[in-house]
Each structure stands twice: as structure tokens, then as C-alpha cells.
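User: If you would, consider this record:
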Amino acid sequence: MTFKIKRLSIVAIITLVLSSCTSSKRDVNTEELIGGLELLSSEQTGIHFNNSIKESETVNHIYYNQIYSGAGVAIGDINNDGFPDIFFAGNQEADRLYINKGELKFEDISKSSKISRSPGWSWGVTMADVNADGYLDIYVCRNGESMNPTDRKNKLFINNKDLTFTESASEYGIADKGFSSQSVFFDMDNDGDLDMYLVNQIPDSRLFKRYSNIPKERYKLYKDKLFKNENGKFIEVSKDAGLIDRYTYGLSVNASDLNNDGWVDLFVSNDYDEPDFMYYNNGDGTFTNVIIDKLKHISRFSMGSDTGDINNDGFIDLLTLDMAAEDHYRSKTNMKSMNSQEFKEMIDKGDHHQYMFNTLQINNGLGEFSDIASLAGVAKTDWSWGGVLVDLNNDGFKDILISNGVKKDVRNNDFLTELNEKLKTDSKDFYSMAKMTPSNPLPNYVFKNKNGLEFENVSKQWGFDLPSFSHGISYADLDNDGDLDIVTNNMETEASIYKNNTTGNYLKVEFKGSAKNTFGYGSKVFIYTKNKTQVSENTVTRGYLSSKEPILFFGLGKEKNIDSVKVIWPNGNTKAYFNLNANSTLTAVYSNAMDITKKVKEVKEVKEVKTIFSKLGKDYLGINFTHKENEFDDFKEEILLPHKLSTNGPFSATADVNGDGLDDVFIGGAAQQEGTLFLQTKEGKFQKSSSSPWYEDKDSEDLEVLFFDLDGDGDNDLYVASGGSEFKSGNKLLKDRVYINDGVGNFSKSLKIVPEIYESSQTVEASDIDGDGDLDLFVGTRLIAGKYTYPATSYILINENGIFKKAPKKTAISLQNIGMVTDAVFSDIDNDGDEDLLVVGEWMEIKVLENKSGIFTDNSQKFGIKDDSRGIWWSITKNDLDNDGDDDYILGNLGNNNKFKATKEHPFKVYANDFDGNGTNDVVLAKYYKDGYVPMRGKECTTQQMPYVGEKFKDFHSFASSKLIDILPEKTVEEAVVYEISNFESILLINENGKLTAQKLPIQAQISPIKNSLVDDFNNDGFKDILLVGNHYGVEVETVRYDAGYGSLFIGDGKNKFKFLPPTSSGFYIPTDSRAISSIKTINNSKIYLVTNNNDSIALFKNNMELMSN
């Protein structure tokens, strides 16, 4: 696999031209980086705009659902005096334009500028130089309750260069009459002028009820539109460009080069059930919606969105906002449970996996994304509107700013219950009904970026926590003091102006663009300092219904100098600037840039870089296996399960089964699917074996598979663990199986070798436990079907002349009711010559069973395992990572990218029992809230599982106000299975003379569950590295599925330090529901790496470094 990368050194070929660079008075020798915002009063700023809503008998949310959706704000320097000005869009209030007089003083020029002559229900606003005269114009989107298209004509205010504007939308061809939300101006075809994408909506559903005879020709107004700039006029090209022909409730749009190909792409956030759009620009005037392929899941009710590089890896990431409340009470009173049937139908019709959470999609560099919002701590911020990625403390990392609050809690479940009762009476007093709705202003959020992937809520510390109803949000250095100030458009309170008092150095980049794109929209800027690389794009439409000034701002922290700056204009022309001072403004001039494509070819600056791994086609070696998971509803009886237990396969095993010196491969099947043995040929290809006695056992679910010499005849026999949650204990399909090898790769099933044990097993490991020279087995029981969290008993099988017998309990008394075992390893942890047993599992502590003369004793604490080691452990792998002569261990946990937050002070808990006495196991997950524990799930789904809950709690308020001890019967709680977890991190256990020291894996390993790991020196530097695979797609519909993992390579230094290597460099990329990874030795002693995936085909990789060394 190869990737073309443009190194910074290409700028060295470009002649340095002196540019305009001005400095500010900010002290460059800052000693401490401090963040903080100061809310200025309207008396200080002169801004008195208040987007208030006056409700009445005919104007309220019963009539018009979008009444509280607010309006946007745009910032830009309309008179080119160096001070950013502010435009506020209004709903019932008239739009307002404020000129910046300096020192954070503003003057209302709405009347004199003539923008107030066009009243209407405004939503989104964007500033752009539409007529390319060097002055910013203003485009306003109109929406509202009027079904008269003329009332909704969007407005284009052309700047007359004298602080007045002329409305000219019709003249330019963009007086659109749809229910418009927002627009973005961008160069779609790199021809040098600005085109425009317009987000429209279908009319509010309640308008349809009021207006039944809508002319069919009007429906064309309700779809998104793409306008191409043809000689200064805009022509709609939506159909020809390939836009999706669907009616949606779009709320925001971003124009950004998401796949780094030099063409601007589009992301559109759609509210309600319609999925968002991610349009990749094909470079020929057309776009392709790639949302299903590039994002593993999306928000359900997408609101505002923004793009930017949050981890400074050079790739553009994506933020979308939804309505999930962080507060337990609000989440249980204001949000209905997700309907699993509706969710399934949505997927079945080809739409996306949509969850009611914010998403923070990290660009992996290959044009695809992984959502890490839960890991970052930004998944739930209540009813959020605008989210922007902006460096507020000048430290060089983009923070997250979120506007929040809806005037009325229109989704409050108790209000809706009461409303429905009143509607049944045929009452038409809708105004009185609307007045019943609760109203709770909410604080906005600001999250400080700690390291590129983790964020800290500093709303209170930075002074951004005043409760309000904030919608549009934007930012600019309003006072030119070297930091970014904040503006919000509020409902029922005056607009907020926050002065930023941060320290830290900065660099601003202004643009003098081409003749038709004067402000350089779409330009991309990279800055390189001593310890950091940053990239930003000059695109102004951001957040929610809002836009920012066309200037880029880079925080530098304590850095005093910028090594270099690279400016890439939309057509690819590039200019480099070197050795710039901090606290200055660079003016990038298009006419100074050069077309570098020819130069690049001459000096061969674009090089093909070999990655460590290359992916092989699935038919390359002939291992054409696809796992086909059987349909099973884990949640039918246990509605409150956190995730599926029936999708834990497939596993694979490699060994030479026919004595030809080459590795062969067996891959297990799902229930109703046979496993497959692939034999390697002398040419290094694989063929399906003609021997397949496992076909007769295809109704069983194959889990871990193991090749080992059972009978001491020198060949490899096969053990297959039978498991899954589909079958109750005692079902004959749960009996594990053994297939005997005749020495040349022909297998036959033996019925008598394994005892009659009918439990759901998952893991099997071999060791000579009793020292008699043959291999005995540990078999780990995964679960008791229908009894989630109830501890299952695992067992040891002693090999007696080729027949396995269950070892007496005293052999390993700790295996009785040990738990839900997922994995285990035999390992001589104490170097005494025999192998001990380490066992992990779901809701289990890490167990170290010390072997003394064939008797295993739980001595976990003796070896350094802490009391709080319980986790959702998926895997354990042994290897001497530091080459000190003993085994170390890699343990895969759930990871931190999940909604179940846990700390030592406030662990995450589970309670399991038949709480309502109806014969089914009830699972209650619980978190700490205020002064006690509360259930994770809501009243509706809890009542589905335990009907008495609905009878006991008549409304949502009483349920949300109750602690767990108030909800569950006291006696049944005392008898319940109760576990608690304080940490979900995947870790290393470093063996230091028999003492295990826990060391968390790097943060990139925490983005998903780790199902398996493999250790080798993959880059040939003499030190061992780690490959990880994982994910778990099968979750209940109110939990975001675990799909952020894409396989990861961590490079070791021999000292137990491991550094993440991104897939653009590693070449190891497997964004699937992976289960296991194994190496296969092929001809010439080369290795192929096989990854098995649930309900998907296998993946194969080769090591390019290995080939180079050969």
C-alpha cells in the first residue's frame, strides 16, 4: 500500500517573496497559559439585540414546531477598517447590523445600512464577497411559518462600500423561496469563483396539518440546492451535480476538504430521521454521498456542525451536535426511549445507524472517520445548537464551544402526556396548552482540548456557564488583542459578547485572493512550529446558522517563532513563508503563489512512501471466508442488556495439519454456518480442505478454536468451543467438539473424547497441567444464557490417554462461579517451571491462578492485581514485551469511548436479579448522580422489562427523581448479583520479577474494545510492537455501537513504551467488527496476518518491512 504525501520541503522550491506581516502589542514572553471569558454588558458594547419570541393564540409551538430554533450570527469586516462587524439574524425581531467602533464598542447601523428594509423570519446568515469587489456581502436565509413562498425569499445584501447595502438576491439568482436554513459559499470546481450550497427544509409537520392543499410545484422548493457561479450569476445544478433527491430538515452545512484531495467536500446536518449527507467532491462538477461508507454512525437529530483538525495530524475532523442531556433528570424527563423496531427499519431501508448523541468524528487520514465523542467527553451537552472548533486559550489545540438551550422543553414527556390528554378532548386552546410547557435555560459549554483527543469541561472556570437560550454562535478577534472573542445570538436575552482574556501567543493569516475570490475562501494554511503542526481552512460558514470572519487564527502557546507557513489556495497554487514572529498578522497574497505541480515533478518532491503493512485482496490467497452471523434477538427477554452476547465470533487457528511444513488455517462459523479449513499449497495459496466433518455440527456456534496434539501422535488435532447466547444451558449444541487428525490433514469427529458438558464456552487453552507429558485444557465458560452477569463455572479437562475428564473441583476451586470468561492464557508468571493461569472476562476481576503441583489457587493480589481490577475484559495476550525473560500481558478492556463513565470514587455498577418475580433476569445498569445511584435506562424501557415500574411511577418526573434504591425492591437488591467497575481502560501488565504493574495503553488504544492482540517486531527495529483489533457492533439502540476501532499498530521501544502509528504510515487498517488476529507462516518463511470479522469477510495483510529485509 502506498500513499502520496506532500512534504513541507516542497515549499523550499518556491521563491520567498516578502509579504505584509504586522505585529501586535501582546507580550511574546508569556509565562503562563490562562483561559478565560468575560461577559460584557450591553451598556459596554452597545449591542442590545434580543431575538425574543412573542407567543399568542396563533403563534406558539403547537402551531409551529420550529418556533424555538433561533437564528444565526455572522462576523466580518464589512468596511475593511480592520475591525470585525456583527450581523444578527432575527425571527420576529428585525435583523440587526452593528459596526465595530473599536475597543469592543458597537453601533447599530441597521436602518442606515438599509438591511432592515427586508423584514422576515431569518435563520442562517453568511458573509461572502459574492460580487468579488473586495467587500463582504451578506446572504440571509429565510424560514418561518408562512406558506407563502414570497415571504420566504432569501436575501442577498450587496455591499455598496459606504456602509449601505442593496438587496439583490433575485438579480444574482439566489432569491430562493424554500424553507432555508443556511448557505455556504465555496469553490466547488476550483475555477476561481464562489459557488453556493443552500440547505432547505420541508415545511414543519404542523404546517402540513394547517395547510392541506399545497400545490405540487412548490415541493421542489423544499430540497437542498447547489448553485454554480456562471460569470457572476448563480445557476442551479443540483440534479446534474448528483445531490440526494430527498426531503429533509437540514440545519447546517460545512464546506471542507475532508479527504485531502484538493477539492472541497460538503457535510450537511439533517434533523429527525433523515440521515446527514456527506458529499465527496468528484472533481468533475458532481458529488457523491458517502455517509454510509465514511462514517460508521451519525447523530440522530443533527443540529449544528463544524470541521477542523482537533488533534493536529493534518486531517480535518468533524463535530455534529444532538440533544442528549448530560444531566440524569433532564435525560429521563425530556427524551423518549429509542424504539428498537424503528431503528431496525431505518437500517433496513438503507439509512444509517443514528444515535441521539453528539459525534466527534476523527479523520483517520484515509477519508474515513471514527467517532470519539464519548472518549473526548463531549457526547452529551443537552439541546445543543451551534458547535465550533476554535482555539480559545491560544495553546495550539482547537477547543469546542457549544451554544445551548431551547426556550420550551417541548419534548418533556410529562408535558406531552398531558398535552395528548387535552388534545383528545378536541380542545383548540393551543395557546394554553403551549403555556404548560416547562422552560429551563441551560448553560453553554466550552471544552478545553487537553491532548488532541480528550477534552475537559471548563465552562465554569472560563466563565461560559450562564444559563440562556443561545443559538447562533461565532468568534473573531473583535478588539484585535490577539485572542478570539465570542458572540452568541440569544432568545429572550440580549446577545452575548464574551471578551477573551487568555494569554498565549498567536499568528493570524489574512488573505488577498484572486479576482473572483477576493478573500481566498477555501484556502488551506499549514503552520509549523518547534513542537506542533497545525492546519486550518478558510471557510466561514460554521456551527449553527452562523459564519465567522475570513481570517485564520492559530494559537502558539509559548512559542515565539513560526518555522514556516504554507498557504495552499483553492486551485492548488502554493506559497511558503519562513521564520515569522509570534503575535503577528501574515497577509497571504494569491498573486505571489505559484503553481507547483511542474516543479514538484522536476524535483521529485512527491514521493511514494511504503507503509509497514499492505492489505491483500480477499481472493489473493484463496482464503475466501465470510462469516455470516445468524439472526438472534438478545434483547427479547433481557431488554436492558448493554450489548449482544451472540456475536462473539469468529475465531481462527493456524497450524500445519498435513505435515508439509506450511501453516494451514481453520476459521469457525456462526450458528447454522460450518467452519472451514484452508490448506496451504506449495505455491503459497490456500485451498478449502475436502475434509469437513464439522459440517455436521454447523448448527452450533463456533467460538475459540485450537490446534494441538491431543493424542501425542505428532499431528495437530482440533478443538472447537461451542457457545453463543442462543442456546440455554443443557442444549446439546453447546457441547464442545474435538476432531482427530489422521496425520495428513483428514479429520474425524470423536464423540467420547470430551465429557458431557453443555455450557456456553468461548475460550480454550492447552498446557500440561499434571506434568504427564500430554496436553490438558482450560475451557472458559462465557455465559449462562438468559442470566447476564451471573457467574458461570469454567473448568479444567485432564488428558488421560487421549480422553478428557473433568478435573476435580480442588484442582481449581476458584473456577467455580468465576464469571463470564472471555479469554485466558497459560503462562509461567513466577518462573517456577510450571504454567499458571490468567483469566479475564466480562464484569470480572483479573484472575491469576498460581499453579502449585497441578493445583491452581487464586493468588491475584500476591502478583500485584488490585482489588478494583474488574472490567469488561475481552482479551489477554502474553508475550515478553521488554525481552527480560518473563511474560508480560496485553489486556483488552471496553475502552474509554463509551457512555458508561467510571471512576474509583464513583464506579459504574450492574444489578441483576428477577426483580419483579416474573421468571426473567432483569439487568439494571447504574451510574452515580448527585448523592446516589440511578438507573442508566429510562422509564419506558425499564417498564418494558419490569412492568411494576410503570405502575409505581406514574410520571417521568417521579422516576427521574428517584434513586435506584427507591425503584428496585429492597429484598431483591440484597439478593442480586452486583458488580462495580472503576476503569474501562485497556492496559499492559508488565511482569517485574513476578509482580504485575498495570500500565494503560496509549489513548488511541482506548477508542474501542480490544478483542485480540498480536506481538512481533513489525518494523524490524529490534523491539517488539503490538497490533490490536476490536469493536463490537451489537449494542442496544440507546448505546452508540463500538465501531471507532480500525485496527492499530503501536511501535515499541524495548522499554514498554509504545507509540501509535497512524494507518497512513502503518498501512494496517481494518474498520470492521473484528474479533481475532493471527499470523500465518507462508513460503519463504514470510508471514501473512489474518483478521477475522463478525458478519463479514476476513482480511489479510502482508508486512512490507519483512519483504524489504528479505
In short: Residues 899 and 1039 are 7 Å apart (CA to CA). The first helix runs from residue 42 to 45. The first strand starts at residue 2 and ends at 6.
